[in-house]
Amino acid sequence: MKFMMIMRATDEATAAYREVPFEEILEQMGRYNEELMKAGVLLAGEGLADIDDNAFVVDFSSEPPLVTDGPYGETKELFSGFWIIEVATKDEAAHWARKVPLGAGSKIEVRRVTEMTDFPADNEWIEKEAGWREEQANRAQ
Fold first, then answer.
1. Could you report the per-residue pLDDT of 93-135, keeping only the tens digit for each?
2. CATH number, domain at 134?
3. Is the pLDDT score of 74 beyond 80?
4. 134 vs 68: CA distance, rounded Å
5. Best CA proximity match to 116, nearest among 100, 130, 106, 102
6. Which residue of 20, 59, 93, 119 pairs with 3 in a disulfide if CB–CB is 3.0 to 4.6 A?
7. Got the DSSP string for 11-67?
8. What is the pTM of this model?
9. Cα gap 57→101, rounded to integer Å
10. Structural domain boundaries enclosing 54
């Protein structure tokens, strides 16, 4: 099963994070990522830039959807990065989520990533998606 581990942090956690030397953060995250790779469970992962670095929100409450700089004035938690891992069980995903080197005020939301088997195989768009994925896999080789 694939799971996405989503890093979220409160404003206070983000402020505390900025007090830690960046080299220390790189080392902690690097060690964690290395552990995921050595265990053979890491499929992808990325950190996200600060919200003041080209972030925006598309709000679908109106037609056409409205693009704004975002409702960031009232943030309680921000999404700051993710990993996608492939493990055998939900418990194994929880094991890896507990090991993420984060401090108080940070959370990891873990969600199962849908797979092609979650959808009807005879749907036109699901068939196209399967073809696109196969093309991408072939390009990556």
1. 999 999 999 988 899 999 999 998 999 989 999 999 989 989 9
2. 3.30.70.1060
3. no
4. 35
5. 130
6. 93
7. HHHHHHHHHS-HHHHHHHHHHHHHHHHHTT-EEEEEE---TTTT--EEETTSSSPEE
8. 0.83
9. 28
10. 2-140
